[in-house]
């Protein structure tokens, strides 16, 4: 009897493509290549599919959870969607806590997977959502996987995203650029790439003061993700909301890549590097697809 794949087998293994128009003549003249890792090709549409499945499967293997249990997680969107998908696959009740100002598409997608939503006031941001999730856990409403402190989050990228980038570039990657939210992606990829070549430069992207870019955060010290290790990031660049949104629109128009604003933010940084370096192979994470941002006004109606 044929052994067919399940949906879980198609998390990861995403394409890495060369940007043809956005880098421009200057980058080409300097011998630089800018590559985009298309994480929107994951089953639930984002890079968060990797840690979501990793956290659930490894918690199961340890005996921490079992199908039928209730899982709780604070999320701004992509992790919640990915966890909702993984919970549906594995047979869990999923309760997601998120600020009320997140896009309608995100909420509808989570509910489509069967997740239950607890919406918190927008003024409290993700910090309040995290506090509410902890309160629900303490009141014994379920188990928190905790993407912000769970080592199974960066482990998914150490075992998957990092090796894929290394293999897809034949070890030629010189710079890796990622937006920073939970920091799982940049932590796991940095660990892997630095083990293969300590000279690979790891560049993180954070929002400028006053900018609100979905998927990119600069956390107050009290809420800094516990998985974050500053020594694994060589350079941190700030990005404005306007430039991130504009590059996101250009990415669709000029490269045919329809993505979210955090991807545009990371590419702002990748193109900065391409304008200053020589003979560099720059890999930037395209975190998700743009269809979950249509109601936000980022894209023209």
From TrEMBL:
Top-level division of the source organism's lineage: Bacteria
Enzyme class: transferase
Binding of pyridoxal 5'-phosphate, residues: 78, 181-185, 262
E.C. number(s) listed in UniProt: 2.5.1.47
N6-(pyridoxal phosphate)lysine PTM sites in chain numbering: 48
Organism taxonomic ancestry: Bacteria, Pseudomonadati, Pseudomonadota, Betaproteobacteria, Rhodocyclales
Reaction(s) the record says it catalyses: O-acetyl-L-serine + hydrogen sulfide = L-cysteine + acetate
InterPro entries in the record: Cys_synth (IPR005856), Cys_Synth/Cystath_Beta-Synth (IPR050214), CysM (IPR005858), P-phosphate_BS (IPR001216), TrpB-like_PALP (IPR001926), TrpB-like_PALP_sf (IPR036052)
Alphabetically ordered keywords of this record: Amino-acid biosynthesis, Cysteine biosynthesis, Pyridoxal phosphate, Transferase
Xref: PROSITE patterns: CYS_SYNTHASE
Domain Tryptophan synthase beta chain-like PALP: 8-288
Pathway the protein acts in: Amino-acid biosynthesis; L-cysteine biosynthesis; L-cysteine from L-serine: step 2/2
Organism: Rhodocyclus tenuis (Rhodospirillum tenue)
Residues forming coiled coils: none
Annotated protein name in UniProt: Cysteine synthase
Cell inner membrane recorded as keyword: no
A biological process term (GO) from this entry: cysteine biosynthetic process from serine
Family: Belongs to the cysteine synthase/cystathionine beta-synthase family.
Known cofactor(s): pyridoxal 5'-phosphate
Molecular function in Gene Ontology: cysteine synthase activity
Pfam families per record: PALP
């Amino acid at each position: 009897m044929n052994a067919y794949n399940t949906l879980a087998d198609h998390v990861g293994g995403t394409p890495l493509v060369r940007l043809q128009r956005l880098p421009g003549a200057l980058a080409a003249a300097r011998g630089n290549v800018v590559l985009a890792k298309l994480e929107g090709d994951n089953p639930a549409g984002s890079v968060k599919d990797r840690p979501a499945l990793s956290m659930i499967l490894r918690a199961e293997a340890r005996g921490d959870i079992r199908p039928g249990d209730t899982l709780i997680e604070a999320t701004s969107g992509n992790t919640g969607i990915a966890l909702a998908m993984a919970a549906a696959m594995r047979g869990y009740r999923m309760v997601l806590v998120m600020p009320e100002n997140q896009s309608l598409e995100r909420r509808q997608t989570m509910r489509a997977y069967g997740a239950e939503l607890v919406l918190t006031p927008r003024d409290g941001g993700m910090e309040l959502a995290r506090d509410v999730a902890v309160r629900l856990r303490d009141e014994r409403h379920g188990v928190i996987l905790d993407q912000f402190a769970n080592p199974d989050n960066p482990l998914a990228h150490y075992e998957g995203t990092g090796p894929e980038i290394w293999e897809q570039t034949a070890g030629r990657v010189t710079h890796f650029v990622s937006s920073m939210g939970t920091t799982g992606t940049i932590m796991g990829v940095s660990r892997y790439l630095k083990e293969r070549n300590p000279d690979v430069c790891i560049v993180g992207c954070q929002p400028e003061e006053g900018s609100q870019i979905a998927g990119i955060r600069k956390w107050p010290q009290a809420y800094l993700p516990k998985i974050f290790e500053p020594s694994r990031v060589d350079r941190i660049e700030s990005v404005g909301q306007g430039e991130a949104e504009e590059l996101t629109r250009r990415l669709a128009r000029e490269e045919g890549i329809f993505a979210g604003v955090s991807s545009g933010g990371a590419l702002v940084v990748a193109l900065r590097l391409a304008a200053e370096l020589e003979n560099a192979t720059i890999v930037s994470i395209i975190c998700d697809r743009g269809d979950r941002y249509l109601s936000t006004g980022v894209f023209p109606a």
